[in-house]
UniProtKB/TrEMBL annotation:
Signal peptide residues on this chain, from the entry's feature table: none
Keyword flag Transmembrane helix: yes
Transmembrane regions: 7-27, 39-57, 69-87, 93-116, 123-143, 149-169, 181-199, 214-235, 242-264, 270-289
Any one annotated GO CC term: membrane
UniProt keywords, alphabetically: Membrane, Transmembrane, Transmembrane helix
Record-given protein name: Membrane protein
Domain of life according to the entry: Bacteria
Ranges of residues in domain EamA: 8-138, 153-287
Length: 303
């Protein structure tokens, strides 16, 4: 029962992330742009987490060295750019296609670790990449005769967000390992806001819609899209393990497609559904195998 509680936490966090593409698409239709939406989300999330940090620690030191501070801010910059590019992509393409392309972070992460850290992918990982690509072609409806109507700008933005998401995941797994989740999350969100502002300073300052409605939207995005999922993941992932959590977090994909179908009335064909299932199965199988491998390695070390 205890593990079930933490499993549900991770599932809810992933589902919350899955609703964001449809929600942001709706806000785009109301005239808001990706720069102001992603910046306000990151800034308010940093403020909320910072307030929690101050309340929990008071005047106590964060215990961070200068060598830990900058890598965490840069890591935050990667997730900030991910949100900006992703939010920008849904103004060009459907929310369901955007989430399918974002899920390419799985194999981008494998390639990054190979290129940067010389960690060669296993046969299973290469097979996973193959099935993800097959699933992407199907789920993205790339066999459709209307292919020319696709916005390749939107596709490239979504793929760019997938790449920066992979950078974030790889960096996040290697920096700040000894830092508590709350100061780590606060610094990552601060770095996220800083990166988005640096790239879009002129748009944020001059072309904005700041007002009461926008404030409500920003608070909603910060709480539902960042703060609550971060807290749920921080509480649940350490209890059930990264491998199982990675499998559970793939719930983001079907939730995003379902949400786009209900909220935005986007049509999803049987071929697209089959592609999504292939992608989910490939990602889940790879993460399950990795979790078993890690568990066996720990058992060997404890003997």
């Amino acid at each position: 029962m205890k593990n079930l509680k933490y499993t549900v936490m991770v599932l809810i966090g992933g589902a919350m992330y899955g609703t964001m593409s449809s929600v942001v698409k709706l806000f785009h239709l109301r005239g808001y742009n990706a720069a102001e939406l992603s910046f306000s989300q990151a800034l308010l999330a940093a403020i909320f987490l910072g307030m929690c940090l101050l309340l929990s620690r008071g005047k106590e030191s964060l215990g961070l060295s200068r060598n830990e501070l900058m890598p965490l801010l840069v890591t935050g910059g990667a997730i900030g750019l991910t949100n900006f590019l992703y939010y920008q992509s849904v103004s060009y393409i459907s929310a369901s296609l955007a989430i399918v392309l974002l899920m390419q972070f799985t194999w981008f992460s494998i390639l990054l670790e190979w290129a940067v850290f010389r960690k060669r992918p296993s046969v299973l990982e290469l097979l996973t990449v193959f099935f993800i690509l097959v699933g992407t072609v199907m789920a993205g409806n790339l066999f459709d005769a209307e292919i020319s109507s696709f916005s390749w700008t939107g596709v490239m933005l979504a793929l760019g967000s997938s790449f920066t998401y992979a950078v974030y995941i790889v960096a996040n797994s290697r920096v700040g390992k000894n830092v508590d989740w709350l100061p780590k999350s606060t610094l990552i969100m601060a770095g996220s806001a800083l990166a988005i502002f640096t790239v879009n300073a002129e748009t944020i300052i001059t072309d904005n819609h700041f007002g009461y409605e926008f404030l409500l939207i920003a608070v909603f995005l910060a709480v539902v899209g960042t703060t609550i999922p971060t807290a749920l993941f921080a509480a649940g992932i350490p209890k059930i393990g990264a491998g199982i959590s990675s499998i559970l977090m793939t719930v983001e994909l079907p939730v995003a497609v379902l949400c786009a179908s209900i909220v935005l009335k986007e049509h999803t064909s049987p071929v697209q559904l089959a592609g999504i299932l292939i992608m989910l199965a490939a990602i889940a199988a790879m993460n399950y195998y990795k979790s078993l491998k890690t568990r066996k390695a720990k058992q060997v070390c404890s003997i």
